[in-house]
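Notebook B, p. 112. Complex prediction, attempt 2.
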Amino acid sequence: MRTYVGIDLGSTTTKAVLIDDDSRVLGRGITNSRSNYATAARVASEEARIDGRFTLFHRALQRDGDPGDRLELFLAALERAFRLEQFQEQLADLERTCNGQFRGGRFAELEAGVRRALDEVFKRVRSEVAAMFAPGARRKSDFFRDIAGAHYYTHAEAVGRELSLPYEILLNIYDKSILEVENRPPAGDLSGKFRRALQKILAEDGHIGQQAAHLQHVIEDTLDVDLEDGYLVGTGYGRVTLPFSKEHIRSEILCHGLGAHMMYPNTRTVLDIGGQDTKGIQVDGDGIVTSFQMNDRCAAGCGRYLGYIADEMSIGLHELGPMAMKSDCPSRINSTCTVFAGAELRDRLSLGEKREDIVAGLHRAIILRAISIISRSGGVTNEFTFTGGVAKNEAAVRELRQLIKANYGDVVININPDSIYTGALGAAEFARRAYEGGARQEAQA
Amino acid sequence: MTTAAPAARTPTRDVEKDASMQKQKAMMAAHYDRLTSAPETGAKVCSTFVPGNLNELIGCFDLLNNLPEVNAIQSGLRRVSGQYVMEAEKIGHSEDVCTYVKSDIGMMAKGNIAPNGQKFPNPDVLLLSYTGCFTFMKWFELLREQFKCETIMLHTPYMGDGRFTPNMIEYMVKQLRDEVIPKLERVSGVKFDIDRLRERLKKSAQAEDDLVHVLQTARNTPSPIDAYFGGIYYIGPIFGAFRGTDDAIDYYRFLRNEIDERLAQGRGPVTPEGDMGRERYRLVVEGPPNYTHFRQFWKMFYDEGAVVVASSYTKVGGVYDFGFRHDASRPLETLAEYCLGVYTNRSLPMRIDMLTNYVEDYRADGLLINSIKSCNSFSAGQLLMMREVEKRTGKPAAFIESDLVDPRYFSAANIKNRLESYFQMVEQRRASARTAA
């Protein structure tokens, strides 16, 4: 089966989308961009391929007439078991890497104590791994760095205390090691991991019983489907740093335009608020960009701004939206200058304003800036699609809905749960078209 | 809002230059040497601006012409404007002030050193001959305060109604006769000779013919010139200190032959890395370029095969391609008409007409606007102009933002992103037009 990959190398996350010959999405993958786009691209596309396999499993089992609920339960269990396999593999790598930090290094004197501590920390983390991937378990992030880090920090603090070792040393070792682990290409052998995951759930889940042979057969058949690489297109902030040749690179503005058109064919205006920039894009009925505007050098009011605010408040980025939603009297914020974000916040707090009002005001300020970019790009004429990381923030969406209504009346506003993949989807479609164009030329020749 | 070719001290290692560029470099170097040796030679110096500059008149009084914007451009190209701008901010000029002004003020604060490493002379007279940019007036007020010298402010009415009237000409001629000429006589000690002026105006017209010929070669495909990045070199002498001189006549004849040869050979424009590759996009550009990253900015175009076939910026020191020439038979009237006609003295509808005409006449793929952060005079209204040109021509337009000589406002990744998006947009439109056909 021929597949096409689109990769969107954002400043915060790297996204990949895998599609087939009919432009249908097979899989999506996301990872943090780190400072290494090459690895991020590899990880994201592997994630998309994994997701793609699940789509194929789904299609194959559905074809066989498997009833919906049971099918979903089985696939969810398979995915958890697979993720667990993957996590354990990376955790073992992390442990090896942590233990490798001693070679002639600055921890040499404390080596014996630190090794003992590391053994203990990893033992405790390992004991929690199964629970992390148990049914119904909630994870704040799907990135290895975040999950492993949270557990490691908790245990390192306790173990450090117990063994009278400075916590900073253990932190330091983790920080150094996680970078190496993250930047190592994924180990591969996906089929092996799928098979081990399948064996595990067959062994553990008694309900599957007589179905086992059939399921195994379907999964094996699907694993045999070769996902042939048709073509790849990269886009986004980090595209030029990748070893892609020029033909494999497309502008993120065009990719977002096309991606939004694929999700919602009636879209005429697209707003994308990403980490580094905000883009207002107008597209025609074929998803072709007719005009666009974006922020200039100053990244005020982009996603990164919210990140600074969250850091300044010592809360998670995902907690900002819910906090702002509690406000019924948003503060009037004049500046979305990232440099002054901290000062603005402290200023307001010192005047006695409530945190939720300030945060709500900040969301409004960001959207006001976006509205100005949209109007400069040509305004809103028909369906409007909001994409990018900030589209996941409920407070930002609330402000956007209000301001679009106030400025352009009742307009259909689309926000796709997969909006973060819009650019990668457009890139994948460009890849498919490029392949098709090339194939046509070859045929004509 | 003006122009110049890099002077002698601009680093030129590994840069490919045509013979005309080398010739111009020598001309500029000689001019800076004349200026900086003024204290020894006793020559008097007139500071003035490029748009509406009265070079023929200044020459009649044996005054040397010193152009502060060109000095700011040279500072930008030599990568020293950043420190000058910050110096001016230290003195108290705000971040939003025109960066030509701040570069000039900062340069003076740091010793007023010319590109040849010698000190610039103090001006004997400040001659403001164009008021389409109000900041020019304030700039000369600042210089007057500093140098305490004679200051002449010639008022050029704005062409708000899209044309100039006999009254406007009369009004300007009166100022020239009653104000400008007597003051220049007084400062220079040289008596005004109208025949000398006529002689110079004749020379101007001759060079102007050749310049227009060169700029219009861009109507060909492939274009033998880049009318924006290359164009800035081509306008250097005529917009600067050489209009009305034999040097300018020689230069423009030489340039014309060089470009004609390029055209005959079917070659594209020269770039700092040699001849440009295949011409893929033909653009009309509105607005000045960025000078602190001039080569990097240019490279973003020629790497993609984009050539600028016409630009409004190369008309700020005079619009010649619609027929105007300096006319020796009406010496003062022609100077007035010249000042009135410069690009930035034209109303927004006139600018829209010009840009639309360029897109059509030069068979361009569309219009690109480089909007300048610190130049409201140029930037106000540009987005509306863009929409209108888009509507009239049916060709896509795009908008990028940078600054004249403040390096802090140049974001390479952002500009490259927008440019590439624009080029791909043009490509996509072509593909869909092909499919539709």
